[in-house]
Write a structure and sequence with these properties.
The complex is a heterodimer. In chain A, helix 5 packs antiparallel against helix 6. Chain A is an all-alpha fold. In chain B, helix 6 packs parallel to helix 8. Classes of the chains: A mainly alpha, B mainly alpha. Chains A and B meet through helix 1, helix 2 and helix 3 of A and helix 2 of B.
Chain lengths: 238, 413
């Protein structure tokens, strides 16, 4: 958006060319920031939507009454996210407990909880990756633009003083050019700020869902562990 | 470095199309912007509005705004080109004795100016001092050309080249100059008795001169005729006689010419002096201008309020009281019902207290006795017309120029 505006007006293109080196740098940097922030916004929107969709799908399958082992076998070789990632991590830990000696019941519950926590934090980190860039652009962008404006006005005043002419025709182009830096900065910062807030909230929501799923799944597994432990004890007693 | 590379890679990753989409979007915006913002629309210059002040007639009359560059003088005054006649009168009930008008009011320069134009209408003063001299100059032109010519011409045309022109008036070189003095005819018409007398004398002299010359011319004519008669018989004698006559005529002509030149020179001198006087004359312009208590010598600097002095409420009631008091002397209310409502009469006054317009009744009513009462009051106003208005109100003239006076019937009873 701002990158486009930097070269919008023909006369503004000329102004951009006339601008001070530092102002040019600021404008170009802000234009790049705008491109980057929009790239992040688009990617993040798509990613969040995909995660929400896959989580819904997994939830449906999980509560459909399908056997957990079957579900595990269907998912284990794919790259998973959201609930599926939690499920795979917990199931891997579970199966590992029974593959060996099959006597690790005592601390299996704790381990599963830990694994779930770790995978939750990994998922959340993935969700929130690059949001910091948006936050930075949103908060620092206007200052950078202001810096460009102040510098542009400074140079304008210096050239006014040098030309000893204060007519508006002399003053206006320099000021317009200087203000342009602020315009680009605002154009970059405003969407960045809006989408940063939205993404943080979405990520929080997903994190909450993940945690509740983890608690539920951990409860299911703990029941299973207790049942297996009882069965083993019975077998041992028999 | 590696991070930026991965960033770039992620930008080109087809699964994360955000980077490509963003770049494409910005490029599209740039193209659209180039099309939309290709030229800046210049402002249409705003039309400057003219400030308009609404002022009342009174404000206009009292306006004292003046020359910005004028020299600062302590007191602004209403503009006046001439001094208004000063009527100094005692304020009734205030002064017991007649107050002598201050000498300051009569300004010396005006006193000088005024008497001049008065004695005679304006066009006259200019030529007045000169007329006698002009009259003296006048007579010569029409003088004796006709008589002289016949005498001179017949014998021999040769001797006087000046005589050649046959028209009587243009005969001599001098006359053309003399008829010129144009101002003469005008002054003659308007001239005083003295001028007329002089003129008559001059004319008489002229006539005498002419008679004399005519006799001479007659003699010459007779002589010529005799000569012609005798010419065939006695050429010799005729020649002699002609020669003698010629000599006499020449002599006479020369004398005449000298005399005339002298007169012409005098006339010219006179003419020049008249012209000089006319050119440098400092007659008062014909414009009469505004009148006031004093002549304003320069543009007024104006007062801060740009208006003249107003009557204070007490001054106004005082003035109206004075007017009604004077009016009451002429007032005779017709017998009959005295109305309850109060007629209000509008009138405009001149500086000297005379009524310039009105009085007119502003609130006619149907009440019995009202109209006779109002009319009696208006009649009284008209009859007592020039009111004596004390000097101290003169400065506020523009405020009391037009007045509305109410006549309270209850005061009559």
């Amino acid at each position: 958006m701002p990158g486009a505006e930097a070269q919008v007006d023909l006369s503004l293109i000329a102004l951009f060319m006339h601008a001070h080196f530092i102002v040019k740098l600021v404008m170009l940097g802000l234009a790049a920031a705008s491109v980057w922030s929009w790239a992040i916004i688009i990617n993040k929107t798509m990613a969040l939507r995909a995660i929400a969709k896959s989580m819904d799908e997994f939830e449906d399958r999980f509560w459909s009454g399908q056997s957990l082992d079957e579900l595990y076998r269907g998912l284990v070789n794919k790259t998973n996210d959201g609930f599926a990632a939690l499920f795979i991590a917990a199931m891997t830990e579970w199966r590992r407990a029974f593959e060996g000696s099959g006597r690790g019941f005592a601390s299996l519950q704790t381990r599963i909880d830990k694994v779930l926590d770790v995978s939750i934090s990994r998922e959340v980190e993935r969700l929130e990756s690059k949001l910091l860039v948006l936050a930075t652009i949103a908060s620092v962008g206007p200052y950078i633009g202001l810096f460009g404006t102040v510098f542009g006005i400074m140079t304008t005043f210096r050239s006014i003083a040098a030309s000893k002419n204060t007519s508006l025709a002399v003053v206006a182009p320099g000021i317009a050019e200087a203000l342009f830096a602020t315009a680009i900065a605002l154009a970059a910062a405003i969407p960045a700020n809006i989408f940063y807030n939205k993404f943080v909230r979405d990520a929080g929501k997903i994190q909450g869902r993940l945690e509740s799923f983890a608690d539920e799944f951990s409860a299911i597994l703990s029941r299973q562990i207790d049942e297996r432990a009882g069965a083993v004890q019975n077998r041992g007693a028999a | 470095m590696a991070r930026s590379l991965t960033t770039l890679k992620s930008l080109l990753d087809w699964r994360q199309p955000g980077g490509l989409v963003s770049v494409a979007g910005h490029a599209t915006l740039l193209i659209v912007g180039l099309a939309a913002f290709s030229s800046a629309k210049p402002f249409t210059p705003a039309q400057e509005s003219a400030a308009v002040d609404v002022i009342s007639e009174r404000e206009f009359n009292e306006m004292m705004k003046g020359d910005k560059k004028g020299e600062k003088k302590p007191e602004p005054a209403l503009r006046a080109d001439r001094v208004a006649e000063i009527r100094k009168e005692n304020e009734p009930g205030e002064a017991k004795k007649d107050v002598v008008a201050e000498p300051a009011k009569v300004e010396p320069p005006k006193a000088e100016v005024k008497p001049e134009p008065r004695p005679e209408p304006r066009p006259e003063p200019k030529p007045l001092p000169e007329p006698p001299r002009q009259v003296a100059a006048l007579p010569p032109p029409p003088v004796r050309p006709p008589e002289l010519k016949p005498v001179v011409r017949p014998p021999e045309p040769k001797p006087q080249p000046q005589d050649e022109p046959e028209d009587e008036k243009a005969e001599l070189p001098t006359p053309p100059k003399r008829p010129e003095p144009k101002p003469e005819p005008k002054p003659e018409q308007k001239r005083e008795d003295l001028a007329k007398l002089l003129e008559q004398k001059q004319l008489e002299e002229k006539r005498r001169d002419e008679e004399k010359r005519r006799e001479e011319a007659k003699a010459a004519e007779e002589a010529r005729k005799a000569e012609e008669r005798k010419k065939t018989e006695d050429k010799k004698r005729a020649d002699e006689k002609a020669a003698a006559e010629k000599a006499a005529a020449e002599k006479k002509a020369r004398e005449e010419r000298e005399k005339r030149e002298k007169q012409a020179a005098e006339a010219k001198k006179l003419e020049d002096s008249i012209r000089q006087r006319l050119l440098t004359s400092r007659e008062a312009p014909s414009s009469t201008g505004a009148t006031g208590a004093q002549v304003s010598r320069q543009a007024s600097l104006g007062a801060e309020t740009a208006t003249g002095r107003r009557l204070s409420p007490s001054e106004r009631s005082q003035l109206i009281g004075l007017l009604t008091e004077q009016m009451n002397r002429c007032l005779s209310i017709p017998p009959g019902a005295i109305p309850r409502s109060k007629p209000i009469v509008a009138l405009t006054l001149a500086r000297d207290g005379s009524i310039t317009s009105g009085p007119t009744l502003t609130n006619p009513m149907n009440e019995p006795g009202y109209m006779p009462y109002a009319e009696a009051n208006m009649r009284a106003l008209r009859n007592c017309a020039p009111f004596r208005i004390p000097e101290r109100f003169a400065a506020m003239y523009d405020d009391w120029k037009s007045l509305r006076i109410g006549f309270d019937p209850s005061e009559m009873q």
